[in-house]
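ugh ok fine here u go
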Amino acid sequence: MARSPRRPGLGSHRGGRDARPRLPLAPVRHASQPDQLRPHARSPAHRGLFADPRAGAHDATGTRRPGGLGTRRPRHGPVRADRAAARRSRAAACDRPRRARADRARDAPGAGDRARARDAGRRGCVVSDSAPPTPPIDDLGLPEGYLFKPEYEITPRETARRLREGGEGGRTFFLLDCRTPEELQTARIEGVTLIPLQELQQRWEEIVDEADADDASEIDLAVICHHGNRSLRASLMLRQMGFENAMSVAGGIEAWSLSVDAAVPRY
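structure:
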């Protein structure tokens, strides 16, 4: 019967069965190094490796004496302040030509008009000294290509007729302007009541009081704005509030100036 091969390293160097395993030799170490074979042994302390300094050695090495830590001003604060001041001076030097160009642009002729037009554009309207070109209008008095929606809109000519003759069937006709106060100063229609679109949900009861009606359903309401977009939103909102006959003036005050009253300025 064949014997199983022996594993190397379990016997002596000759392969004897009863020989003990050989241990590796201990490494050569310094007296200050911990013993790798005895990790529980106490390691040397700092005082055992380095001697105590002489008296006055702290001043020579540049360190502080005992009890004097934190008494001197650190250097990083002034360095950061100097760097920040240098950055500000460089930024100011680079900004001087820019400020000079801004001053020349502000003093240029017509600069105030451009600023007023820019501010008016931010409020939702465009104001210019000259009127925009007159577009062609169709048979309804609306700009050509305008998509008229008779179930939600009313033409400017029909609005002007009802404003003169009053509502149908003894009803009260009321013309509401949902533009901003600045737009109302630019172009205004006689007999109109101003309630901006942003304030309509809080001030809709004023319409019933101004129309001297008992209920909102008794009012034939027409809403006008600049081009008809805001007035359409306002009329749909007023229908949900009880104004069943709320309509939007198609084309807004722009179409009113083209087909009803040319004296109303266009902007």
